[in-house]
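ok new one. same drill as before - C-alpha coordinates go in, u give me an amino acid for every spot. 269 of them this time. try not to just spam alanines like last time pls lmao
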Protein backbone atom coordinates (compact mmCIF):
# COMPACT_ATOMS: atom_id res chain seq x y z
CA UNK A 1 0.00 0.00 0.00
CA UNK A 2 1.25 3.45 -0.89
CA UNK A 3 2.02 5.83 1.99
CA UNK A 4 -0.32 8.77 2.45
CA UNK A 5 0.44 11.83 0.33
CA UNK A 6 -1.41 15.08 -0.24
CA UNK A 7 -3.61 15.08 -3.31
CA UNK A 8 -1.60 15.89 -6.42
CA UNK A 9 -3.05 18.49 -8.76
CA UNK A 10 -2.85 17.34 -12.38
CA UNK A 11 -3.16 20.87 -13.70
CA UNK A 12 -0.47 22.28 -11.45
CA UNK A 13 1.96 19.44 -12.15
CA UNK A 14 1.42 19.54 -15.90
CA UNK A 15 1.85 23.31 -15.90
CA UNK A 16 5.05 23.01 -13.86
CA UNK A 17 6.53 20.30 -16.06
CA UNK A 18 5.55 22.12 -19.26
CA UNK A 19 7.07 25.36 -17.96
CA UNK A 20 10.34 23.69 -16.96
CA UNK A 21 10.59 21.84 -20.28
CA UNK A 22 9.90 25.03 -22.22
CA UNK A 23 12.58 26.87 -20.27
CA UNK A 24 14.96 23.95 -20.84
CA UNK A 25 14.29 24.01 -24.58
CA UNK A 26 14.82 27.77 -24.82
CA UNK A 27 18.06 27.71 -22.84
CA UNK A 28 19.41 24.58 -24.55
CA UNK A 29 18.72 25.92 -28.02
CA UNK A 30 19.59 29.56 -27.41
CA UNK A 31 22.29 29.24 -30.08
CA UNK A 32 20.59 27.63 -33.06
CA UNK A 33 22.79 25.89 -35.60
CA UNK A 34 22.13 28.51 -38.26
CA UNK A 35 23.28 31.27 -35.87
CA UNK A 36 26.24 29.55 -34.22
CA UNK A 37 29.47 31.52 -34.20
CA UNK A 38 32.75 30.24 -35.58
CA UNK A 39 34.27 30.63 -32.11
CA UNK A 40 31.64 28.36 -30.56
CA UNK A 41 32.16 25.84 -33.35
CA UNK A 42 35.92 25.84 -32.71
CA UNK A 43 35.41 25.40 -28.96
CA UNK A 44 32.99 22.52 -29.59
CA UNK A 45 35.50 20.86 -31.90
CA UNK A 46 38.35 21.21 -29.41
CA UNK A 47 36.20 19.74 -26.66
CA UNK A 48 35.37 16.82 -28.94
CA UNK A 49 39.08 16.17 -29.40
CA UNK A 50 39.52 16.25 -25.62
CA UNK A 51 36.71 13.73 -25.15
CA UNK A 52 38.20 11.45 -27.82
CA UNK A 53 41.65 11.69 -26.20
CA UNK A 54 40.17 10.64 -22.85
CA UNK A 55 38.22 7.79 -24.43
CA UNK A 56 41.31 6.59 -26.28
CA UNK A 57 43.27 6.65 -23.02
CA UNK A 58 40.49 4.61 -21.41
CA UNK A 59 40.27 2.40 -24.52
CA UNK A 60 36.55 3.03 -24.98
CA UNK A 61 36.65 5.06 -28.20
CA UNK A 62 34.60 2.57 -30.21
CA UNK A 63 31.73 4.76 -31.41
CA UNK A 64 32.70 4.42 -35.07
CA UNK A 65 32.89 0.63 -34.81
CA UNK A 66 29.46 0.50 -33.16
CA UNK A 67 27.96 2.62 -35.90
CA UNK A 68 29.54 0.44 -38.58
CA UNK A 69 27.85 -2.62 -37.06
CA UNK A 70 24.41 -1.18 -37.80
CA UNK A 71 24.86 0.93 -40.95
CA UNK A 72 23.03 -0.57 -43.88
CA UNK A 73 20.67 -2.59 -41.67
CA UNK A 74 17.08 -2.04 -40.59
CA UNK A 75 18.37 -1.51 -37.05
CA UNK A 76 19.71 1.95 -37.89
CA UNK A 77 16.24 3.11 -38.97
CA UNK A 78 14.85 1.77 -35.71
CA UNK A 79 17.53 3.63 -33.75
CA UNK A 80 16.81 6.83 -35.67
CA UNK A 81 13.15 6.66 -34.68
CA UNK A 82 13.98 5.59 -31.13
CA UNK A 83 16.40 8.49 -30.74
CA UNK A 84 13.86 10.99 -32.02
CA UNK A 85 10.76 9.72 -30.19
CA UNK A 86 11.47 7.52 -27.17
CA UNK A 87 13.45 10.20 -25.34
CA UNK A 88 10.33 12.31 -24.76
CA UNK A 89 7.40 9.93 -25.22
CA UNK A 90 8.52 7.24 -22.80
CA UNK A 91 9.56 9.81 -20.19
CA UNK A 92 6.20 11.58 -20.40
CA UNK A 93 4.43 8.23 -20.27
CA UNK A 94 6.29 7.21 -17.11
CA UNK A 95 5.51 10.59 -15.52
CA UNK A 96 1.79 10.19 -16.23
CA UNK A 97 1.81 6.57 -14.98
CA UNK A 98 3.62 7.64 -11.81
CA UNK A 99 1.21 10.50 -11.19
CA UNK A 100 -1.80 8.23 -11.67
CA UNK A 101 -0.67 5.11 -9.81
CA UNK A 102 1.98 6.23 -7.31
CA UNK A 103 1.06 9.78 -6.23
CA UNK A 104 2.95 9.38 -2.93
CA UNK A 105 6.21 8.96 -4.85
CA UNK A 106 5.44 11.30 -7.72
CA UNK A 107 6.77 14.58 -6.36
CA UNK A 108 10.17 13.21 -5.36
CA UNK A 109 10.79 11.42 -8.67
CA UNK A 110 9.44 14.40 -10.63
CA UNK A 111 11.80 16.69 -8.75
CA UNK A 112 14.74 14.41 -9.55
CA UNK A 113 13.91 14.59 -13.25
CA UNK A 114 13.60 18.39 -13.21
CA UNK A 115 16.82 18.91 -11.23
CA UNK A 116 18.68 16.51 -13.53
CA UNK A 117 17.44 18.41 -16.57
CA UNK A 118 18.51 21.73 -15.04
CA UNK A 119 21.96 20.31 -14.28
CA UNK A 120 22.20 19.19 -17.89
CA UNK A 121 21.79 22.80 -18.98
CA UNK A 122 24.86 23.71 -16.94
CA UNK A 123 26.85 21.18 -18.95
CA UNK A 124 25.55 22.50 -22.26
CA UNK A 125 26.39 26.07 -21.28
CA UNK A 126 29.89 25.41 -20.00
CA UNK A 127 31.07 22.60 -22.26
CA UNK A 128 29.88 22.86 -25.89
CA UNK A 129 30.68 19.58 -27.59
CA UNK A 130 30.70 18.63 -31.25
CA UNK A 131 28.96 15.25 -31.63
CA UNK A 132 30.60 12.45 -33.63
CA UNK A 133 28.30 12.93 -36.64
CA UNK A 134 29.81 16.38 -37.24
CA UNK A 135 33.43 15.22 -37.23
CA UNK A 136 33.47 14.35 -40.93
CA UNK A 137 34.58 17.98 -41.59
CA UNK A 138 32.24 18.19 -44.53
CA UNK A 139 29.00 19.38 -42.92
CA UNK A 140 27.88 22.96 -42.48
CA UNK A 141 28.31 22.76 -38.71
CA UNK A 142 31.23 20.34 -38.51
CA UNK A 143 34.88 21.11 -37.90
CA UNK A 144 35.20 22.52 -41.38
CA UNK A 145 38.92 23.22 -41.12
CA UNK A 146 41.24 21.56 -43.60
CA UNK A 147 43.77 20.90 -40.84
CA UNK A 148 41.21 19.43 -38.45
CA UNK A 149 41.23 15.75 -37.63
CA UNK A 150 38.10 14.17 -39.06
CA UNK A 151 36.38 10.84 -38.56
CA UNK A 152 34.13 9.09 -41.09
CA UNK A 153 30.96 9.10 -38.99
CA UNK A 154 27.59 9.15 -40.76
CA UNK A 155 24.76 11.47 -39.75
CA UNK A 156 22.09 8.78 -39.93
CA UNK A 157 19.26 11.19 -39.09
CA UNK A 158 20.10 13.07 -42.28
CA UNK A 159 20.90 10.15 -44.59
CA UNK A 160 18.55 7.47 -43.28
CA UNK A 161 14.96 6.91 -42.27
CA UNK A 162 13.86 8.93 -39.25
CA UNK A 163 11.29 11.32 -37.85
CA UNK A 164 13.40 14.43 -38.47
CA UNK A 165 16.89 15.71 -39.18
CA UNK A 166 19.00 18.47 -37.66
CA UNK A 167 19.33 19.88 -41.18
CA UNK A 168 15.59 20.45 -41.58
CA UNK A 169 14.20 24.01 -41.53
CA UNK A 170 12.98 24.91 -38.02
CA UNK A 171 15.22 22.30 -36.36
CA UNK A 172 18.23 23.76 -38.14
CA UNK A 173 17.29 27.26 -36.96
CA UNK A 174 16.54 26.40 -33.35
CA UNK A 175 18.49 23.35 -32.28
CA UNK A 176 21.88 23.70 -30.60
CA UNK A 177 23.78 20.81 -32.13
CA UNK A 178 26.65 21.17 -29.67
CA UNK A 179 24.49 20.40 -26.59
CA UNK A 180 25.81 16.86 -26.19
CA UNK A 181 27.48 16.66 -22.76
CA UNK A 182 25.83 15.26 -20.67
CA UNK A 183 23.47 13.01 -22.60
CA UNK A 184 20.01 13.68 -21.21
CA UNK A 185 18.76 10.88 -23.44
CA UNK A 186 20.65 8.53 -21.13
CA UNK A 187 19.78 10.46 -17.96
CA UNK A 188 16.06 10.41 -18.74
CA UNK A 189 16.14 6.76 -19.85
CA UNK A 190 17.91 5.75 -16.65
CA UNK A 191 15.39 7.81 -14.64
CA UNK A 192 12.55 5.88 -16.30
CA UNK A 193 14.31 2.60 -15.45
CA UNK A 194 14.74 3.57 -11.79
CA UNK A 195 11.11 4.69 -11.47
CA UNK A 196 9.63 1.59 -13.09
CA UNK A 197 11.95 -0.79 -11.28
CA UNK A 198 11.19 0.83 -7.93
CA UNK A 199 7.46 1.33 -8.39
CA UNK A 200 6.18 -1.45 -10.64
CA UNK A 201 5.25 -4.87 -9.26
CA UNK A 202 5.29 -6.54 -12.69
CA UNK A 203 8.46 -8.41 -13.54
CA UNK A 204 8.12 -7.91 -17.29
CA UNK A 205 7.82 -4.14 -16.78
CA UNK A 206 11.04 -4.17 -14.77
CA UNK A 207 12.83 -6.05 -17.52
CA UNK A 208 11.64 -3.54 -20.12
CA UNK A 209 12.72 -0.75 -17.79
CA UNK A 210 16.27 -2.13 -17.75
CA UNK A 211 16.29 -2.51 -21.53
CA UNK A 212 15.27 1.12 -22.17
CA UNK A 213 18.61 2.79 -21.23
CA UNK A 214 20.52 0.00 -22.98
CA UNK A 215 18.63 0.53 -26.25
CA UNK A 216 18.96 4.29 -25.77
CA UNK A 217 22.75 3.93 -25.45
CA UNK A 218 22.87 1.94 -28.69
CA UNK A 219 20.68 4.58 -30.36
CA UNK A 220 22.73 7.62 -29.35
CA UNK A 221 26.01 5.94 -30.31
CA UNK A 222 24.94 4.22 -33.53
CA UNK A 223 23.38 7.45 -34.83
CA UNK A 224 26.64 9.26 -33.95
CA UNK A 225 24.89 11.81 -31.76
CA UNK A 226 26.90 11.08 -28.61
CA UNK A 227 30.13 9.67 -27.25
CA UNK A 228 30.24 7.01 -24.56
CA UNK A 229 31.49 9.66 -22.11
CA UNK A 230 28.31 11.66 -22.78
CA UNK A 231 26.38 8.67 -21.47
CA UNK A 232 28.62 8.40 -18.41
CA UNK A 233 28.07 12.11 -17.76
CA UNK A 234 24.32 11.59 -18.15
CA UNK A 235 24.31 8.89 -15.47
CA UNK A 236 26.44 11.08 -13.20
CA UNK A 237 24.03 13.98 -13.69
CA UNK A 238 21.08 11.76 -12.75
CA UNK A 239 22.93 10.56 -9.64
CA UNK A 240 23.62 14.16 -8.65
CA UNK A 241 19.96 14.98 -9.24
CA UNK A 242 18.95 12.23 -6.80
CA UNK A 243 21.48 13.47 -4.22
CA UNK A 244 20.20 17.05 -4.47
CA UNK A 245 16.53 16.09 -4.10
CA UNK A 246 17.07 13.51 -1.36
CA UNK A 247 19.30 15.94 0.52
CA UNK A 248 16.72 18.70 0.26
CA UNK A 249 13.92 16.38 1.35
CA UNK A 250 15.94 15.26 4.38
CA UNK A 251 16.66 18.88 5.29
CA UNK A 252 12.94 19.70 5.10
CA UNK A 253 12.02 16.69 7.24
CA UNK A 254 14.60 17.58 9.88
CA UNK A 255 13.48 21.18 9.93
CA UNK A 256 9.82 20.15 10.24
CA UNK A 257 10.72 17.80 13.10
CA UNK A 258 12.61 20.57 14.91
CA UNK A 259 9.72 22.99 14.43
CA UNK A 260 7.22 20.40 15.68
CA UNK A 261 9.35 19.70 18.76
CA UNK A 262 9.69 23.41 19.46
CA UNK A 263 5.96 23.95 19.05
CA UNK A 264 5.19 21.04 21.39
CA UNK A 265 7.49 22.51 24.00
CA UNK A 266 5.48 25.71 23.99
CA UNK A 267 2.14 23.96 24.54
CA UNK A 268 0.92 24.67 28.15
CA UNK A 269 0.32 21.66 30.40
Amino acid sequence: MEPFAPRVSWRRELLLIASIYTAYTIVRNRFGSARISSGARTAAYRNAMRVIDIEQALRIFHELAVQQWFLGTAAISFFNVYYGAAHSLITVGVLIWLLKTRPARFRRFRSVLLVTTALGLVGYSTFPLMPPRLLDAGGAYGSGAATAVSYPFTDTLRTGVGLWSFDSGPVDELSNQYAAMPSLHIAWAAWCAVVLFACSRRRWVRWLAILHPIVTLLAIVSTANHYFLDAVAGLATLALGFLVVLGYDRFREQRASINATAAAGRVPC
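The chain has one domain: 34-258. and btw Residues 34-258 form one domain.
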